[in-house]
Design goal:
The protein is of the alpha/beta class. The protein folds into two domains: 149 residues, Rossmann fold, CATH 3.40.50.10860; 163 residues, NAD(P)-binding Rossmann-like Domain (Rossmann fold), CATH 3.40.50. 38% of the residues lie in helices and 16% in strands. The protein has twelve helices and twelve strands. A six-stranded mixed beta sheet has the order 2-1-3-5-6-4, with helices on both faces. Helix 10 links the parallel strand 11 and strand 12. The chain is globular. The two termini are 30 Å apart.
Length: 335
């Protein structure tokens, strides 16, 4: 495959097979490099994948230089953006020739398509989650989502996708308001009050009513335990903090009151996965983040390819990647 990571200058000079970029912080060791070829074949595309590593404090001018390098090289078909979604949007809004409605709601970009010298931005996380969430909720004893109580630990990009997917008809024109039955209650937490403020503004832009939403700043895992103790069941508890993968540990303590009527969903699929192990030991229903990982990439790649993301296509992409899925005893996916 060759070296899996390119510099921006190397992106500009690329003359190999049609190129899709993976824009992150440390992309070279990602499992996605091992499955991408199979995904490209399922999509009928001759693509190859390379990473572009940018530090968390990348200056705006660097993002703009990357977007221009992608736009001006016809061999570059687009890119999937992970850790830089908000910063890239802030830096490059003027460079975009088009954007889907979810970009306007979230003020983030997770996919860039660069066909024919134009740059189109997408925020596809909610689209991906809309294909995953119904299957996840089948593990809950709630008869429908109106009886579900949701506690999301972390208020970043995944929480934004969850907020929109729980309250909007995502498949209807990518974020148009639809007849969605919202959960009984949804609570978001974060150690950063500014992240909660950003999430609240997304809800306001999307027209999501605040009556059943709560935004709670926290300082320690014990704060989450207290919220969990007061959470009615059936419940969905989501680890969207990155703890267990990006950093060791869990947003809960080992004595957190998880119950058998709780679905404990860790958005991580690798790492120490402490949150999932706590769920297994407590008798809750643990679900890992593998299917969301696959759906996230599927949402972005289908946008670049200009084709719809369907359940059938997602199933094929999941099957193509299945041999590479890490396993944790006791956890499940949705398949």
């Amino acid at each position: 495959m060759g070296r899996p990571v390119l510099t921006i200058d190397e992106v500009a000079a690329w003359s190999g097979p049609p190129l899709v970029l993976f824009v992150g912080i440390d992309t070279g060791g990602s499992l996605v490099h091992r499955v991408f070829g199979r995904w490209a074949r399922e999509l009928g595309q001759p693509w190859t994948l390379r990473g572009v590593d940018l530090p968390p404090d990348t200056p705006p001018a660097t993002y703009r230089r990357l977007v221009r390098a992608m736009r001006d090289n016809p061999a570059v078909r687009g890119g999937i953006v992970t850790a830089h979604k908000l910063r890239l949007h802030r830096a490059c809004a003027a460079e975009l020739d088009g954007a889907d409605r979810l970009v306007g709601l979230t003020h983030e970009v997770n996919t860039l398509a660069t066909a024919d010298g134009a740059v189109t931005a997408y925020a596809r996380d909610a689209v991906s989650l809309a294909h995953v969430l119904p299957r996840l909720l089948r593990h809950s004893s709630a008869r429908d989502r109106t009886g579900l109580h949701v506690l999301c630990l972390g208020a970043g990009g995944a929480a934004t996708a969850l907020l929109l997917t729980l309250h909007l008809d995502i498949d209807a024109v990518a974020g148009a308001r639809g007849p969605v039955d919202s959960p009984a209650r949804v609570t978001f937490t974060d150690t950063r009050p500014e992240a909660l403020d950003d999430l609240r503004r997304v809800a306001e832009r999307a027209g999501v009513a605040n009556a059943r939403l709560s935004y709670v700043p926290v300082g320690a895992p014990a704060d989450h335990d207290a919220l969990l103790a007061d959470l009615p069941t059936p419940a969905l508890v989501v680890n969207a903090t990155g703890l267990g993968k990006d950093a060791p540990g869990s947003p809960l303590t080992d004595t957190a009151p998880l119950t058998p009527d709780t679905v404990a969903w860790d958005l991580n699929y690798r790492g120490d996965l402490t949150f999932l192990r706590q769920a297994v030991e407590a008798g809750a229903h643990p679900v890992d983040g593998w299917d969301y990982f696959v759906a996230g990439w599927a949402g972005g790649l289908t946008a670049i390819a200009g084709i719809p993301l369907t359940d059938a296509l997602l199933a094929r992409l999941a099957d193509a990647a299945a041999a590479h899925r890490p396993h944790l005893a006791g956890s499940t996916t949705f398949r």
